[in-house]
Amino acid sequence: MQEIWKRIEAWLGAHTPEVMNNVYAGAAEEDIRQLEMKLGYQLPDDLRDSLRIHNGTASWFVDGWELLSVDRIWQEQQVQLEVLHDLQEEAGEIEAGERVWWWYPHWIPFASFGNGDLLCVEVDPSSGEQSGQIIEFYHESYSLWIAPNFQAVLSAFADHLEAGGYALDEFGGLRSKTRRFDADHLPPGSQRIYL
Description:
Domain Knr4/Smi1-like: 26-163
Oligomer: single chain
Pfam family, one: SMI1_KNR4
Shape: globular
Largest sheet: 6 strands, antiparallel
Protein name: Knr4/Smi1-like domain-containing protein
Number of domains: 1
Number of strands: 8
CATH topology: SMI1/KNR4-like
Number of helices: 6
CATH architecture: 3-Layer(aba) Sandwich
CATH class: Alpha Beta
Mean pLDDT: 84
Order of helices and strands: HHHHEHEEEEHEEE
InterPro entries: Knr4/Smi1-like_dom, Knr4/Smi1-like_sf, KNR4/SMI1_regulator
Helix content: 25-40%
CATH superfamily: SMI1/KNR4-like
Strand order of the largest sheet: 1-2-3-4-5-8
């Protein structure tokens, strides 16, 4: 993860230092441990290592997404669990281990679009899914599987940066020159899940 972040830092420093100024310093090991204790799950090593290097961003970072700090990961997870609880009360009891269409408690958010949409890492290896896989959660409709792990997401971002695929947007973040992440233009290899 350190090599990937060095590539990102070098590009941001050379091309958009104002964006680099919005990237926080790394989280303390104790803060990460506390988050894991509260969540009841150990974070995948790649996300954990990334948080040690950079503990989120101060604002929109790329394509409207904000990388979440350790504290914001916990806050976003609690919001989703509260909504899930309310939905379960309305719908009746859910069988143990059954997934509901809206949210799964083993999804740990690491990026927010600011409107309830989240990028999450799946941390339940017993689910039959790949532990560590990345889910794009759309709060009003469906979720997408988008990558096998966090390292793949960050590495693809670094590759796209170095290829000149991003420009500074009017909000002080980066905007992809070529990608669109909406229902009509899904990322390659993605699939809708839990329709």
